[in-house]
Amino acid sequence: MEAEAAKFLGAGLATLGMGLAAIGVGTIFGNFLAGALRNPSAADGQFARAFIGAALAEGLGIFSLVVALVLLFVV
Amino acid sequence: MASGSVIDPIHQFQIIKIVELGQPGGVELAFTNSAAFMFGIVALVFFFLTFATRGRTLVPGRLQSLAELSYEFVASTVRGSAGNEGMKFFPLVFSLFIFVLTANMVGMIPYAFTVTSHLIVTAALALLVILTVIIYGFVRHGTHFLHLFVPSGVPAFLLPFMVVIEVISFLSRPISLSLRLFANMLAGHIAMKVFAGFIVMMTASGVVGWFGAVLPLFMVVALTALEFLVAALQAYVFAVLTCIYLNDALHPGH
Fold first, then answer.
1. What is the dihedral of CA B46, B52, B53, B59, to 10 degrees?
2. Greatest CA span in chain A, whole angstroms?
3. Domain map of chain B by residue range?
4. Other CB atoms closer than 10 Å to residue B213's CB: what's the count?
5. Where is the V-ATPase proteolipid subunit C-like domain positioned along the sequence (chain A) (predicted)?
6. N or C: lower Cβ tally within 10 Å for chain B?
7. Integer angstrom CA distances of residue B170 from B128, B148, B224, B248
8. Do B81 and A48 make contact, defined as CB atoms within 8 angstroms?
9. Element (H, E) at B18
10. Is residue A15 situated within a structural domain?
């Protein structure tokens, strides 16, 4: 395999991580919404926490985006 | 791609030297468009807050209530995640939040430069936060600050592994804090420009393309709305995580 082709394959594989991070973010907000519908009065207090969790999960997906970008433009 | 010169989603991140300041010690110094935008953002925030709080009235006007809202918003975030003691770091968190928010929002103006889409800028902001945490933690608590890495109630044979994991997680904080903001702004702006490029490509292919270009146009409008949300959200996330890290410096030990 040519090095150039392997680079693009690697970048494409790295983007899979973003889809997996999407599952994590979806789980967080899905569970937050499920909890919020059961007990709406407690939802506002946990709003920031939901976003922190989403930010952390999203950060891991962004690492794989950075891997893809590095493979495409830097290596 | 033949029309690569037309669609270049990376072009918007180019750093342009405005005034070159020579090379003291072999390091190239220049006043760039990035620096110009940062000065502009600081000036914008400075004049906004000065004008908004100049004629203080009991019943606030539009500008004053905007300033009060942003103050209360950040203050409640700091109190919520770092406690009342955390309010001594309010100036730091408020400056970071307003700077990042304004930088993200200014970046949404067409042809404007997005300061936070450069890793070096966000890394400097993240290092400022982490160094504040480390220095304040050691000054305030001395070696007790290291209890941060030793979780309580862990079986003795697990403790060495937990300490290693805690240290790694602490060291990865500045990386994730800076990368999150940088990559969100970078990826969002690239996506917008790529879809805007589709419109140009389709309209270039004749009358049929004009109707086809409606689809990416809707996409660009939707993406722009999403980007405004992301711009505000990432500034908020940056501020909240700063508060949480500062909370570690204020109350180490689990």
1. -160
2. 59
3. 11-250
4. 18
5. 9-71
6. N
7. 15, 9, 34, 10
8. yes
9. strand B17-20
10. no
- Chain B nearest-CA distance from A73, in A, is 10
Task: For residue A41, tell me if it sits in a domain.
Answer: yes
The verdict on A74 touching B (C-beta cutoff 8 Å) is no
Of A75 and B157, which is predicted with more confidence? B157
Nearest to A52 among B10, B186, B240 (CB): B240
> Where residue B90 falls among pLDDT bands split at 50, 70, 90?
very high
A59 vs B: CB within 8 A: yes
Interfacial B residues in 193-252 facing A (CB < 8 Å): 233, 236-237, 240-241, 244
Chain B interface includes A58 (CB < 8 A): yes
Residue A12 domain-assigned?
no
Q: What is the mean pLDDT of residues A65-74?
A: 83
How far apart (Å, rounded) are the C-alpha atoms in residues A23 and B135?
37
Asked, for residue A16, whether it belongs to a domain, the answer is no
User: B70 in helix, strand or coil?
Assistant: helix
> Is residue B170 within 8 Å of residue B129, measured between CB atoms?
no
Domain coverage including residue A36: 23-75
B95-138 pLDDT per residue, tens = 999 999 999 999 999 888 999 999 899 999 999 999 999 999 99
Give which of B248, B249, B250, B240 is closest to B93, Cα–Cα: B240
**Euclidean distance between CA atoms B190 and B114, whole angstroms:** 12
Number of domains in chain A: 1
Q: Which site among B93, B176, B182 would you substitute to test the A interface, given the most A Cβ atoms closer than 10 Å to its Cβ?
A: B176
Of B10, B183, B241, nearest to A66 by CB-CB distance is: B183
CA distance A28 to chain B (A): 15
Q: List CB contacts (< 8 A) between A55 and chain B.
A: 180, 237, 240-241
CB-based burial, B93-105: b 16+ in 10 Å, e otherwise? bbebbbbbbbbbb
